[in-house]
Amino acid sequence: METAQVMDAALRKAAALWVAVPGRRGRLVWALWRDGSVWVAVGGDQEVPGLTDDQAVTITVRSPTTHSFLLETPATAHLVEPDEDTAAALRAARLNGPAAWTEVYRLDLP
């Protein structure tokens, strides 16, 4: 199964994945799969220390049902200003309460 299909299937069910910045441990974050990229809102209760614009990161996806490893892939983080539809989708993807973010990153896969 190709990377995009794994991302789409996994994030439809769980809306969470691990993001690791080089030299740091991965962080579990609420995420959104949209337009072929992973979108992550950070700030408040969801932080990815060291995440910056145009940075290489590693995304790890686990099965939402069995928690087994599904995929690990590199990506590039881009600091973006989401449009209204994407912002609404990010708020809906956050299952742990109201979204209070300071930055939104689009993680582009190779």
From TrEMBL:
Organism whose genome encodes this protein: Umezawaea endophytica
Name under which the protein is recorded: Uncharacterized protein
Protein origin, superkingdom: Bacteria
Lineage: Bacteria, Bacillati, Actinomycetota, Actinomycetes, Pseudonocardiales
